[in-house]
Amino acid sequence: MAFSFWKKMFGDQAQSGQAGSAVKAAEAAVSAEEKEEKVETPVKSEVVVDDVEVNVPVAEEDAVAEDTLKKGVSDSKVTKEGLEDFVAFVSRSLVDNPEAVQVSTLEKDRLSVIQIRCEKRDIGKIVGKNGKTIAAIRTLVSGAGGRIGLRMTVEVLD
Prior knowledge:
Elements (H helix, E strand, L loop, with lengths): L1 H9 L1 H5 L3 H16 L7 E7 L2 E6 L2 H12 L8 H15 L7 E7 L2 E7 L2 H8 L4 H16 L3 E7 L1
Parallel strand pairs: 4-5
Antiparallel strand pairs: 1-2, 3-4
């Protein structure tokens, strides 16, 4: 098998011995690789891609994630107060004067709004360039709120 590979690579040179030492070294490397023991990894699932069956290995994180999904939302450690604390921590980490940051939650219909109050000069740091920072914070809060069945968003006030 290894020789046919090198024959394809080097053509007739491999047969005539012109590529001698390089071919012998490569064959030795291939045979050493074949002798190595292959470690079997547990298979998570078999996935069929373009009519080819592919085995997907299980990682410990995957097993933990699957267990968490099986437990469901009821075991979630996310709380409304925890999300408010998260927003306060991130906001205070971004601004120049963290003591001036105040975070509160307002209930509107079925929507919880976490409001951030800070100095005017620090608003831009929380909002970020083109609103990317506040959009990221809103995405995290909305996603975590969804885990506990709440619709949540974040607003920056002056």
